[in-house]
Write a structure and sequence with these properties.
- The protein is an alpha+beta fold.
- 49% of the residues lie in helices and 12% in strands.
- The chain is built from 8 helices and 9 strands.
- The protein has a 4-stranded mixed β-sheet with strand order 4-3-2-9.
- Strand 5 and strand 6 form a beta hairpin.
- The site of one zinc ion has 5 residues, from loops.
Length: 277
């Protein structure tokens, strides 16, 4: 599997953090001063939004996305040569294939995929995001989604507040530093608006349909039934309030998880029928 150079992996994430922190700091240092005495709720409200953006960005970046640890070399090796490449499981009446991961030495559970950048199998793999230098999977998708939502609100809010400041800048000419900084902030936001709002809208559609980016771009359920969907409303609730799964990196029983992944017989899985359609 190709592995990215460690240094180049950090470049997009460093750029994203620098841009986010730089633009936000400029806003608080320059145009926000205008609101401090006139409308003190504005810095407080913007501070809360900034906190949400940074907290979700941090969690999406540093959280274990749902890594299934590789099988240790001593684990059950004798059947590797005889094992077929695929196993099938039945989920809500649909047969789903589980592929043998040559690197990790187990059958990938449904929705799991091997990330060539991280070199790990990730549960409910969505995509590898270079901007957070991490995979987006079962455990951190929620925070990635919240990050996109809060970032969109953050950008709209800062753009509006900077524009209002320029229009009511108490006789300051447009050549002074505060209006210039405000225009730079608005320019950066205008450049990023289409990709960020587009990505946020795309993930809103994915959440409502109960799909991952990986399933969408590979056209897995095109024209067919998605056995993982719980219905639009329940899909949205599940993303926001569903259980937070434990990290297999922290628990000792990860051999049990792989034992499931190595089963040789047909498995019937009812996918959370209590919240099903
Ligand atoms: Zn793997
Ligand atoms: Zn990855």
């Amino acid at each position: 599997m190709p592995k990215c150079d460690l240094k180049t992996r950090y470049i997009p994430a460093t750029f994203a953090w620098t841009l986010l922190l730089g633009t936000t700091s400029l806003f608080f240092y320059f145009p926000c001063q205008y609101y401090l005495l006139r409308h003190p709720w504005v810095p407080a409200y913007q501070g809360v939004i900034t906190f949400f953006v940074l907290a979700n960005f941090t969690l999406a970046t540093f959280m274990d996305p749902g890594v299934i640890p590789k099988a240790p070399p001593d684990e059950d090796r004798e059947d590797d040569f005889r094992a077929p490449l695929y196993r099938s499981v039945e989920i809500n009446g649909i047969t789903v294939r589980m592929k043998w991961c040559v690197t990790c030495k187990f059958y990938r559970p449904p929705r799991c995929s091997h990330c060539s950048v991280c070199n790990h199998c990730i549960e409910t793999f969505d995509h590898h995001c270079p901007w957070v230098n991490n995979c987006i999977g079962r455990r951190n998708y929620r925070f990635f989604f919240f990050f996109l939502i809060s970032l969109s609100i953050h950008m709209l809010s800062i753009f509006g507040l900077s524009l209002y400041f320029i229009m009511n800048n108490n006789g300051k000419t447009l050549t002074e530093v505060e209006p210039i900084v405000s225009m730079v902030i608005m320019g950066v936001i205008a450049l990023l608006a289409i990709p960020i709002f587009g990505l946020t809208g795309f993930h809103m559609v994915l959440v409502s349909r109960g799909r991952t980016t990986n399933e969408q771009v590979t056209g897995k359920f095109t024209g067919g039934y998605n056995p993982f969907s719980r219905g639009c409303w329940n899909n949205c609730c599940y993303t926001q309030f569903g259980p937070q799964y434990p990290s297999y990196l922290l628990i000792q029983e990860n051999a049990l998880v792989r034992a499931f992944c190595r089963q040789r017989y047909r498995i019937i899985v009812h996918y959370h029928p209590e919240v099903g359609q």
